[in-house]
Design a protein that fits this description.
By secondary structure, this protein is of the alpha/beta class. It is built from 14 helices and 18 strands. Helix 11 packs parallel to helix 12.
Length: 402
């Protein structure tokens, strides 16, 4: 039914994809080009593709990173339906709650070896985390009451288009104060990527205004924004955070390489680069045999630590924009990066955290702004909200009281 006279029957395929999308609540446009789509939507396409092909073995690698809590529940329902029909599912995830909720058997791997296989009934989050990391892991974020000061980041009426020239951020306004974490919650693909690109100089906004401590930085290039006090942990660490073919030492100086002590009369100073990287490798617990290893050779968690070390160690940081700072990392690295973000907040820095991980948003944020289809639909104090409430807003159920 898919091909007629050797060519693809797009109409019937599109109809079937729409049917699967509806049946499983996976919002996918059959006619969209996959390349430019955000990672989150691409992941949905992967799931639809598997369902379309009636696969007998399905391997899901971190599939919920891009779903609302309600959508994740739907996915688990789909997974249970599939296993009931005799499909075998291998579910790879770092999220302990999910694995306990959905698995029949749980195998823990560490450093390429199987540590143990258990059933959900005979284990819990703390025990799994311990097996994963090889030590006790604190699964909650320790933070004291925040002492927010005046506005550091002010965003007014910001409108941004994506690479397809579609308006993905519609007239968004918010502020982040010194000494607080403002979390932006939302399913991936609702304008968060373009918002963070506009704030960090990677994309020019159509209209609106962005100021850091009163300094108008709208549409300025990344270097000017960085020099004004921005630290940026980007969503795609390999594309926007590191030069994979450069050494760790070089990557750790990417923001300041043209200043003393890294540069003298326009010439790089290897000794200063080396000293800086050794200091940061120790301070930020980067696991590497030496500073001269290429960043591309490190594990994801250590690549992320290199970025965090470079960005958070600079002396003039006033604002941190952290976009998906722990995506795809192990629980040990997550614990570490969370503690570094809270340290910045406690030093009086303003932190904007963008994450599709609702647990992460709720654990780190003092206030939460929910983004849906390019707009901020609610801003709440973290202590006054629930996962369910946020999940509804993330899915577009705008409750009048918001």
């Amino acid at each position: 039914e898919e091909t007629k006279r050797g060519s693809l029957d797009r109409v019937s395929v599109a109809a079937k994809i729409n049917e699967i999308s509806k049946q499983y609540g996976l919002d996918v446009d059959p006619n969209a080009l996959v390349g430019p789509l955000p990672v989150g939507i691409q992941q949905r396409v992967e799931i639809v593709k598997t369902l379309y092909r009636n696969a007998e073995i399905v391997i899901l690698d971190e599939p919920t990173a891009v779903l609302t809590p309600q959508e994740a529940e739907d996915l688990f329902r789909i997974m249970r339906d599939l296993t009931a029909r005799g499909v075998s599912i291998i579910f790879i995830t770092h999220k302990l709650k999910e694995v306990l909720a959905v698995a029949d058997r749980i195998t823990v791997m560490r450093a390429g070896r199987v540590i143990n296989t258990v059933t959900p009934a005979e284990t819990d989050s703390a025990q799994l985390a311990n097996m994963m990391v090889g030590r006790q892991v604190i699964l909650t974020v320790n933070k004291k009451e925040h002492q927010a000061t005046e506005d550091v980041l002010k965003v007014e009426g910001l409108t941004v288009r994506d690479q397809r020239n579609l308006e993905t951020v519609h007239s968004v306004s918010f502020t982040v104060r010194g000494g607080e974490v403002l979390g932006i919650a939302g399913v991936q693909g609702n304008g968060q990527t373009e918002l963070s690109e506009a704030l960090t100089g990677l994309r020019s906004p159509v209209s609106g205004k962005v100021t850091i401590e009163g300094n108008d930085l709208t549409g300025k290039p990344p270097r000017i924004i960085t020099e004004a006090g921005l630290a940026h942990i980007p969503e795609d660490r390999q594309r926007h955070g590191l030069v994979l073919s450069y050494t760790i030492a070089d990557n750790m100086a990417l923001c300041d390489y043209y200043h003393a002590p890294f540069s003298a009369r326009g010439v790089l100073q290897p000794k200063a680069l080396d000293e800086n990287s050794r200091k940061l490798i120790t301070a930020f617990d980067v696991r590497t045999p030496s500073p001269f290893v290429n960043a591309g050779k490190l594990s994801g968690g250590n690549q992320q630590k290199v970025i965090v070390a470079r960005e958070l160690s600079r002396s003039n940081v006033k604002l941190v924009v952290a976009n998906q700072p722990t995506r795809g990392l192990d629980v040990g690295s997550i614990e570490y990066i969370h503690s570094e973000i809270i340290k910045m907040r406690d030093r009086g820095v303003a932190v904007l955290l963008i994450s599709a991980e609702l647990d992460e948003i709720m654990a780190l944020s003092d206030r939460i702004a929910v983004m849906y289809r390019g707009q901020i639909v609610a801003v709440v104090e973290t202590k006054n909200t629930t996962r369910e409430q946020l999940g509804l807003w993330m899915a577009g159920a705008h409750i009048e009281t918001a």
